[in-house]
Predict the 3D structure of the following.
Amino acid sequence: MSLYIYNSFSHHFKKLTAAVLLPLLMFMGTTSSALEPPGSAETGHQPRHSPTTAGPLAAHPALQDYLAYAALHNPGLQASFNRWKAALEKVPQVKALPDPKITYTAFIREVETRVGPQEQKFGLSQSFPWFGTLRLRGDVAMEDANAAYQRFQSRKLQLFYEVKNAYYEYYYLHRSIGITTDNLELLKYLESVAQAKVRAGAPLSSVIRAQVELGKLEDHRHALTDLRGPIAAKLNAALNRPYDAFLPWPEQAPFHNVKLREEDLFARLRENNPELKSLDFAIAGNEKAVELARKDSYPDFTLGFNYIDTAEALNLSTPNSGKDPVTAIIAVNVPIWRGKYKAAVQEAQQLREAAVNMRKDRRNLLDVELRLALYQFRDSQRKIDLFRDTLTPEAEQSLNITEETYRAGNVDFLSLIDAQRLLLEFQLASERALVNREQSLAKIEMLTGRKIAHSR
């Protein structure tokens, strides 16, 4: 019996597919493709390539080389890019119709009719959600994709800030080692001056003092040299390179003199910050989700037909003997569980309110971050003017005068050491202020989402 049913099904299904089902399925496929969105073109943000391929790092990379390399190699940025692309692929899924259903019924006991026994039945049906539901689903998915794109942009800006921050810290370490080395040579020279004084009859304490200071300064230089590995590892991590990969010292770093207007920067923050943009798209998506939740309480429709395979009647002279009937199907589901749909609407409304409040909270925090970054920028600029332009030249002059006075025997060696220490402190503070200004400027650019025009 089962073999008979299988053979009969195969024969009649092939016949029915060629005559009826195949054209109908082709029509449904065309309709479904017409409902699909054009994909990523709707966002207007499709990049030309995925951030995965890039050449090797330059032998003597500048800051822009590091930024370009990080953009093309950083796995965190790549993951954010992949999440955005995945979100785009969600759109055609939710806008497509449900798959059509094909049913087959075999009559174990044939139903005898006037025109002949009914042997088997084939059915095809397609469900259609309530009007506008597919469009709303696509809108919600597209808003999610737009939010994912803004998160990708936010991660890119954050990555650029991390690279700049590590790069300038690496530069400062190089300068610190150089300044410390120069001061070691200066201290050795001062020791030779003290030894000359000792040979002329001065007490030995000045030489011992110079040697103690030399030991302390040498230890400080060793500590700075050992710090090269951790700071280089931080920069290599952003570049997706091995932590111990060699990075040459940055001989020169770009420094910028800029004029910042707070009101313009806060306006840029509110307009361009990708985190806030992402939350704007999330709010828009939640508003669409509320409308979609209301649509879910409306009925869905199912249309289809049945084709009944009927054998010849016993009396072949019977009118319409063996004629195969075709029946139409119209079905509507009845959404009677109103509490469920009401809860779904309330859930969507609460999520929308949560997104609105999250945006307000994030904007407040970003305002605080920008205000702090602006303070750090102004403080660094003030220290640059103070140490580089005023205190460091004065400390150099003071050291020269103290050395001449020491040679004349009018001050002790401790005064000379104090003058040398003060010069070292001011030189390092001047470099630190320059680096801090660039790091705070990078933070401001990350928060405002725009590169600030630099003046030479």
Summary: The chain has a mean pLDDT of 85. Residues 338-407 form the longest helix (70 residues). The first strand starts at residue 101 and ends at 113. Residues 161 and 442 are 6 Å apart (CA to CA).
